[in-house]
Amino acid sequence: MASILTNRPELKKVLDSAAEVAGYLWQKGWAERNGGNLTLNITEYVDDEMRAMPAICEPKAIGVTLPYLKGCYFYCKGTGKRMRDLARDPMCGGSIVRILDDCATYEIIADEPIVPTSEISSHLALQNYMLESGANYKATLHTHPIELVAMSHNNEFLDSEHLTQVLWSMIPETLAFAPLGIGVVPYAMPSSTELVEPTLEKIKRYDVVLWEKHGVIAVGPDVMEAFDQIDVLNKAANIYMTAKNFGFTPDGMTPEAVQTIRTVFNLPDHR
Ligand code: 13P
Ligand code: ZN
Q1: Per the CB 3.0–4.6 Å rule, which of 4, 22, 152, 250 could disulfide with 243?
Q2: Which of 76, 97, 117, 216 to mutate to test the pocket of ligand 1 (most atoms within 8 A of CB)?
Q3: Which residues neighbour 225 within 8 Å (Cβ) at sequence distance 6 or greater?
Q4: d(CA 181, CA 175)
Q5: Model-level pTM?
Q6: What is the per-residue DSSP string for 196-239?
């Protein structure tokens, strides 16, 4: 069957990179069953033929109104779909949606009427913020990284500043590649619109947002960079856990050593 990706090499390249990341998530054990989801703003690849494509489902509510998304197009992982299947074929595990003029509903245009992820309100709210802020960011990625989620089960690490400092001090690259750190959002029901506002607030200050006892959501210019940010922070969490498994609490790099990384990498001071 012809796919929307047929004869659209640029769009195919972007979705292939989503498939590559989906494979990494599965390999890392962060994407059990249908765990995790992603959206990509693909508006720049939309041609006249795509714009003329009719909807293949009734309009569906996003759950929030997002004025910057009017007329935009997104690739979304489908709800209930597996990352490991998406890794083989992104259009088997997701669909292309168009945001309608009311900025509060969307319709699916291709390939199949696969209903987008249940976390669509948080993903699209972040996409709206990225357009509003002028950042050339196109990707949002939610996954269940084991060590970061485990840390969010301890009250000590629900403090964003403290968790960020602990993770930065585990290995120098964490600060270099996640210079804004990680912000924690208190537990809320997965997929609920209750997650939207607190997530938006945190992404303004931090690279990655940790949803307590659930997972993380990150943004990036592309899906690979969003993945890298999560990977870097979870690596630090893994080092913390490994030291704990050895039977000791890791010392962490000294504040002076952390500050030197900040200076050498020319990173702004943390707020
Ligand atoms: P979906 O299958 O709806 O994308 O949900 C997976 C998930 O991780 C919810 O938080
Ligand atoms: Zn989840």
Answers
A1: 250
A2: 117
A3: 139
A4: 7
A5: 0.98
A6: HHHHHHHHTT-SEEEETTTEEEEEESSHHHHHHHHHHHHHHHHH
State the sign of the Cα–Cα–Cα–Cα dihedral 18, 215, 234, 256.
positive
CA distance 48 to 129: 26
Q: Are 5 and 15 in contact (CB under 8 A)?
A: yes
- The atom number, within ligand 1, closest to the CA of 34 reads 2
**Tens digit of pLDDT for each residue in 143-184?**
999 999 999 999 999 999 999 999 999 999 999 999 999 999
Contact criterion met (CB below 8 Å) for 13 and 128: no
> Which of the residues 119, 132, 147, 212 is marked catalytic?
119
119 carries an active-site annotation? yes
Residue 83 in contact with ligand 1 by CB distance below 6 A: no
Which amino acid is located at 14 in the chain? V
Hey, whose CA ends up nearest to atom 1 of ligand 1? 79
Does the Cβ of 80 fall within 6 Å of ligand 1? yes
